[in-house]
Amino acid sequence: MIKFIHAFLLIAGLIFLQVFDLQAQAKFTISGYIKDASNGEALIGAAVYVKELGTGNATNEYGFYSITISAGTYTVSYSYVGYQVSAQTVQLDKPVELNVELKAESEELEEVVVTAELEQANAKNAEMSTNKMEIKTLLKLPPLFGEVDVLRSIQLLPGVSTVGEGASGFNVRGGSVGQNLILLDEAPVYNSSHLFGFFSVFNPDAVKDVKLYKGAIPAHYGGRLASILDVRMKEGNNKKTEVTGGIGTVFSRLAVEGPILKDKASFIIAARRSYIDVLAKPFVPLLKDGGALNFYDLTLKANYKINQKNQVYLSGYFGRDNFRFDKRQGFNWGNTTSTIRWNHLYNDRLFSNVTLVYSNYDYKLQFGKDNRNNFSWKSSISNFIFRPQFTYFINSKNELNFGADAIYYTFTPADAVGVTNGKAVDVSLDKKYNLETALHIGNKQTLNDVLSVDYGIRFSNFQYFGPGSAYTYNDTVPGLRRTPTGEIKYKKGQSIANYSNWEPRFSFKIQSSETSSIKGSYNRMVQYLHLISNTTASNPLDVWTPTSNNIKPEIGDQFTLGYFKDVGSQHQYEVSVEGYLRYTKNQIDYIDGADLLINRYLEGDLLSGKGRAYGVETYLQKKTGKITGWVSYTLGRTELKVDGINNNEWYKARYNQTHNLKVVAFYDINARWSVSTNFVFSSGTPTTFPTSRYVQQGIVVPYNANNARNNVTIPSYHRLDISFKLEGRKVSKKGVARKNTDNWVFSVYNVYARKNPFSIYFSQEDVRTTSGETIKTHATKLSIIGTLIPSISYNFKF
Amino acid sequence: MTKFILNIFSIALVSAALLSCETIIHPKLESADPVLVVDAWLTNKSDTQTVILTKTQPYFDNTTPTSVSGATVTVEDNHGNTLTFTESSEKPGYYQWVPASNEVIGQVNDSFELTINVEGETFTASSHMGRVPAIDSISFDEDTQIGTNDKIYQGEFWATDPAGKGDTYWIKAYKNGVLLNKPSEINIAYDASFSAGGETDGVTFITPIRRGINPQDTDANDNPLSPYAVGDSVNVQIFSITLQAFNYLNEVVTQTNRPGGFQELFSTPLANVSTNIVNGNAKGSKVVGFFNVSAVTSLGKKFVKP
């Protein structure tokens, strides 16, 4: 550790020597916040541009910016996509604090909007492998069951895929579902789904900004191999009280936001609940007898600006899915997160944020008809996070980020009791305690007009400590269950396993012309938590398990290279081609017949192997005009090599998709009607077919004579969705402007009712046989959604 | 365990399942050479013991498997006794040993080695006869069907796993003389619960295992039927099996219990189940199947009145 601190200081020192402008010259800082004029929400990633110098910067996650330049008179423009540009003349002979509120674009101001796009041109932005999903865009996409959904929407971005409807989570560049870090106001969300995978836990009414990092991941993020999905909640309107809501096919929603102290403090409370059970109650006996089938979530946030230098934010999420067959039997699961953040400005160049997080995911099952015979099982993962982060805006060419993370985890794999004839048997498993810590530093540096770089390093450490037992296992033929050979008991606080890793991050941008650039990156990611799931789609009972003496941390190295270009007289088109290549090691797989639930010796059922994923993402977006939208095409491959599977040869991962095409288009028909549509095509995912069969004790067992895994692909998936939106009248029939706004959304999911295959499975006919009798076998294609789904939803705001 | 939980999930998802659809298809499969199949599950009961030898067949071939004739099949115990299984004249591929009155294959704690000489190759396998608890009683009780709230009758057997970790069992049930042998009806136990990690040594079998003797039948509209009705009889048998056989059956359940529908979301990849049959020549022909010798206890009961 001490060695590490020395190294850290040395590196930090070297960077400082390089980046400080040592010439004595009067320099001053312009800093402040950029906000939305209508509701006071901070704008994340808004651009600040100093015309005379041709340099600029962007606001951070809290809307803060800072630029330090030589004294002089400058024209500084502030812009954000979809907002009018604000240009200000600044006399810089002392530090200037300039808070700017931007007004949303209106149709008459198209010209100005284009200017905004220019400043934020894709090719000029140093970031790569990231996608931002504007909440406005998200609200326009055709919804399933009338419900706009964050995770469903990001599946329309390049490099993001899913194994099918109903599957929880998403796959990024060939990563598994458990290799995505999903953050809601910096709190990890361990299960992002309601009702298995049909809806995500994020209430769109409370979401402000969604950003997905697929590569070139900055040093302040870590902990998962494939991606970081950073979801930021709205702060709440600090100008006026506003109520939004809606009734969809599945949820009814209501959100209230408003100022607590004008321009100083505001809040938002957003709630949703499924209501099918309420409607069905009179008709379904199960629901009358204490049964339940519902899911809901509540999202809260408040902030208080103490003064120009200090601001605090409190945010919380609570969501739950409930399935109960009667008063005693059923199961439920849900996430809870809470985040406290404190922004502090040490001076106009040093911004800091300290975050405290508590987050928890748990599920409970209970069965049995009375107190004498029942079974109950609870499982959870919870964590506390302490995360100080600093941004030092050194000068107009350097922005230094540094900070630390400390995450304390408690895993409760099973808190389970079975009662038989009044006699209780506790089958609980030991809790597991872990501490994940990291130090990180990174600098964004503009070297000259052509080259800019972002480099950083993250040092992470993971400790597994007592109280608890660690097991050792025998070695056997790979692919067979390993049996425990020893148990070592550890006292409280005693170290069971300890791993450390350096995670270098580097990216560059070469501005090849005013409108084009080449960007590349390398990053190493390390993952210490593993989602244990060997099923086709992940499910709420999938357990997270920590790195241990038997499970090594997963490590991924990703390289990316891309070309970005802005096209069109007004740069209305954005084109990019990006290649990625990722090698991973210590990926987890499972023995055949693995027992993953309430298994003390789970580790004996796990296998470890390596992976490789590579592909090309092409993307064309039209950003302005009557028709907008994008086309994204990804060509990719993901393979795994695990001893004990597929004769120890490389095989395609379950979520491998060779071709993946998405077309999204929006069209404004007139002032009130608009239409949006999307088309999705993806190659079939791999699966395993048997070659042969044999009978054992009257049961037909499938057999693959080549012992292959994922040797065939299922038919391809394609689907068209369409949605029409009717805005309510802006003026009432009497000609008075309406205070309230509302809209109707009519949509059809899977327009041509294709029966897209989710999987193909092989089974014997469902009969009992006697010895010697022949048994029929067949293959079945399953479509989760085998029809078109029309829906209507109504949304309002007043 | 997983099976049990997923059954519960699928009940919860019945409503959503209305949107899904299933189609029987006939994909082309890779062709493969047939492989020897050994089906050798012997017991300590004093009745005819059979080892069946067949060949694997293409997956969609719904005919009777090809039998393998002309093999020599012997079982030797750890006391040096060798039993010879001779091929049945009526049923080719069925190799049988018919005990004399009250004669049995062996006792609890005996070890056995199966040897098969066929087509110029030698295959061997070993097994060990574990102990098995007596069944104390069988009860029938009234319950309500989850989902429909219909009144149903469930059977339940009562037995206690003996103290000492690592006993493994296969519990079979016959309803009115018919063996419940759908893949979904395979009922196995590690001590008194589902797995080694369950830590349920020396206690009464847990509820899902005790109730694993109920047939899983549905009517023409796919509604579950009451497992038992007045007048039905049930016979429950507990077979001791080796740990290897327990793992093997776990794999068989995973691969063959495919009720479809939403449960497919949570199904695991198709993979070959293991085998304990070994070809003396590691480079020789492949073989599949299993050899196990069980001790058996049984109890029957007729459901007279609720």
Give short descriptive properties of this protein:
heterodimer; A: 798 residues; mainly beta; 22-stranded antiparallel beta barrel; five-stranded mixed beta sheet; 6 helices; 6% helix; B: 306 residues; nine-stranded mixed beta sheet; five-stranded antiparallel beta sheet; 18 strands
Describe this structure in words.
The complex is a heterodimer of chains A (about 800) and B (about 300). Chain A is mainly beta. Chain A contains 6 helices and 51 strands. In chain A, the strands form 11 sheets. Chain A has a 22-stranded antiparallel barrel. Chain A has a 5-stranded mixed sheet with strand order 9-16-17-12-13. In chain A, strands 1, 4, 7 and 8 form a 4-stranded mixed sheet that branches. In chain A, a hairpin with a 3-residue loop joins strand 18 (about 240-245) and strand 19 (about 250-260). The longest helix of chain A has 18 residues, at about 1-20. With about 300 residues, chain B is mainly β. Chain B contains 3 helices and 18 strands. In chain B, the strands form 3 sheets. In chain B, strands 16-9-8-5-6-7-3-2-17 form a 9-stranded mixed sheet, with no helix packed on it. Chains A and B meet through strand 44, strand 45, strand 49 and strand 50 of A and helix 1, strand 1, strand 2, strand 4 and strand 13 of B.
